[in-house]
Write a structure and sequence with these properties.
By secondary structure, the protein is α/β, with parallel strands linked by helices. The protein has 19 helices and eight strands. The chain is rod-shaped.
């Protein structure tokens, strides 16, 4: 056996070790949702320092204060000091010198320099029949929850103290014992009846505790008469609660509780790590599919840009040649005798014909490429949906450390899955639509964005209610939106060119062929030619106009090609970004965990070391 003084020395070392452990556990809990456990760790140091916490509850006048004073060696009150009526709480602790501190109104902390109080804290409470009126009910319940030992004091004259029993119901006190006072005022039969009723009441609230009987307060004095009943209560507390060393016993209990907490935290962390690893695999597969898709389909964009460049070059050459051919001085004199207005209209007619033809060709080639591109993305999304539907859900919602984190992960997964479905339906609608309907759906991009938001909300509901299951009807909503767009396009009868024009305003992103040359230049050419007075002057004016026209076409050729190609790049970038953003929340979750997990892992390794320290403490100490 370890000598008493050695135990006391070890208790101090024990206390320091536990303090360090708690600081590190508090650090490890930073990234969890275990608010109760965080509070537990926060309160642990206080519990370690205060030792065993005794709390007495009962109605006013049943003898709580006198009982406590008798049980703890008559040290709570000084000799010949009258026991006052308790208002609020009176908390007794060991201190280097006697002192009283008002913690808050109705809560007095009293220090006594007596060895009997070392390692314990004794709290005397106001009568339960008075606490409601005094606004103390919640505080008394809190004291009960924080107690290590709860002493319930009842009078043999009235054990049906409903305020006390209501207070006990639903509480989670650690160790409880009942003391029946004023037993000398009733006969043995009545005492037995009281014990049976107490046992019955305890059974009703699922409580099991020993019952002790003591004598009443003597008439005309404030002291409780000492009987064998008090000795029984004291012996029970010493043998079954305090032990031979209250400080060490309490700290060992704290260590056991801490060990359980660390083991639960370690188990929860392992689940979180497994969940992260599983989710990371899904994200890596999705990223791989997206990267592979982009790499394999880049040639599609490059091919389209090359074809459109050749198309623009060819059409502008033909346009330039045809306009120049029409600038023959002799034909102009012969055909446009009525002046510049007629000639201007003729040039504009040729100009607009080429512009519309180029627009149609650019539209058709761009549409074809986008359809092919989105068809490939649709396949990528189908794979992603499969990944999410097979996603493991390792963290249970009731996990005490990562409960709300698990719920948020379910929410993000459900939202991603539903967003994938809506996007997939949108891509499918575009790839299947006619040319005219394609532009109608394309320009109704805002409708798709609304459906995406709706899917996110629905996904959130699924994550909360169904634990990440799919929500029936989101695909139907998307399909209904497509059908509505189809009906609108069919009734409107809008031409592709007109739809493109509307698309500039609605979608803001589509390759549009503008003026091949400025209308002012064409009008100026016609005016200069019309103002010529002679054939030589006309020939000179025509030659000058041809040079100006060529320069304008050359300038527009470069600008038009750059603008069309940059728009094409922007279109495909937007589609890839939109597809990628569908997984944004899920990706953020995985990335955050990728940063957090190594830090948590390092902390958990330290916690394993702390557990070993605790085991060493358990082996070293012999009580």
């Amino acid at each position: 056996m370890v000598e008493e003084n050695e135990r006391q020395i070890f208790a101090c070392k024990d206390k320091l070790v536990v303090s360090r452990l708690l600081e590190n556990v508090n650090e490890a809990l930073k990234d969890t949702d275990a608010s109760e456990e965080k509070k537990l760790v926060k309160d642990f140091l206080r519990k370690v320092s205060t030792g065993f916490r005794f709390v007495a509850v009962g109605s006013a006048g049943v003898g709580k204060s006198g009982l406590l004073n008798e049980l703890f060696g008559k040290v709570l009150y000084k000799e010949n000091e009258a026991i006052p009526h308790t208002i609020g709480f009176r908390e007794y602790r060991y201190g280097g010198e006697d002192a009283e501190i008002l913690i808050e109104p109705g809560n007095v902390r009293i220090f006594r320099n007596v060895s009997e109080l070392e390692g314990i804290c004794v709290i005397d409470t106001q009568g339960t029949d008075e606490m409601e009126a005094a606004g103390q009910a919640d505080k008394v319940k809190q004291q009960i929850q924080q107690s290590d030992v709860l002493i319930v004091v009842l009078s043999a004259e009235n054990i049906r103290d409903f305020a006390v029993w209501d207070l006990l119901e639903g509480t989670d006190a650690g160790k409880v014992l009942f003391v029946l006072t004023k037993c000398d005022l009733v006969d043995e039969t009545q005492i037995q009846v009281c014990k049976e009723k107490i046992a019955q009441y305890m059974e009703e609230i699922h409580l099991h505790a020993p019952v002790f009987t003591v004598s009443s307060v003597q008439e005309g004095t404030s002291q409780i008469q000492k009987t064998d009943g008090f000795e029984s209560v004291r012996n029970y507390i010493k043998q079954n609660i305090l032990g031979t060393n209250p400080i060490l016993t309490k700290q060992r209990e704290n260590v056991v509780e801490l060990k359980q907490l660390l083991q639960q935290l370690s188990s929860s962390f392992e689940l979180r790590k497994k969940q992260h690893d599983a989710d990371k695999q899904i994200l890596e597969r999705i990223n791989s599919s997206m990267d592979s898709f982009f790499a394999n389909n880049r040639f599609l964009i490059d091919s389209l840009e090359q074809e459109l460049t050749r198309e623009i070059e060819s059409e502008l050459d033909a346009y330039q040649n045809e306009i120049i051919a029409k600038l023959d001085p002799h034909q102009i004199k012969e055909r446009f005798a009525n002046g510049s207005r007629e000639f201007t209209d003729y040039l504009n007619f040729i100009h607009e014909g080429y512009r519309q033809r180029m627009t149609t060709n650019v539209n058709q080639q761009t549409q074809a490429a986008i359809r092919k591109y989105l068809s490939g993305l649709e396949q990528v999304f189908e794979e992603a949906t499969g990944y999410f539907r097979k996603r493991e859900r390792l963290i249970a919602l009731e996990d005490k450390f990562y409960g709300s984190l698990a719920e948020s992960k379910q929410y993000m997964s459900a939202r991603a899955e539903e967003s994938i479905k809506v996007t997939q339906d949108y891509y499918h609608a575009l790839t299947d639509a006619s040319s005219e309907l394609f532009m109608k759906i394309w320009n109704a991009r805002s409708e798709y964005d609304k459906k995406m938001k709706g899917a996110q909300i629905a996904g959130g509901v699924a994550g909360t209610i169904l634990g990440g299951g799919a929500v029936i009807g989101v695909g139907t909503v998307a399909a209904a939106g497509t059908a509505a767009a189809a009906g609108t396009a069919a009734t409107a009868g809008t031409s592709v060119a007109a739809a493109v024009g509307a698309g500039v305003a609605a979608a803001g992103l589509w390759p549009v062929i503008g003026a091949l040359v400025g209308g002012f230049l064409i009008a100026q050419i016609a005016k200069n030619i019309a103002n010529a007075k002679s054939m030589p002057e006309l020939e000179k004016s025509v030659q000058k106009s041809i040079e100006e026209f060529k320069m304008e076409v050359s300038k527009n050729r470069t600008a038009m090609t750059e603008e069309i190609l940059s728009t094409i790049e922007a279109i495909f970038k937007r589609e890839l970004d939109t597809a990628d953003k569908t997984f944004l929340d899920f990706r953020m979750s995985v990335n955050i965990d990728s940063q957090k997990i190594p830090l948590l892992e390092e902390r958990m390794e330290k916690i394993d070391g702390y557990l070993l320290q605790i085991e060493e403490m358990e082996r070293e100490v012999i009580v």
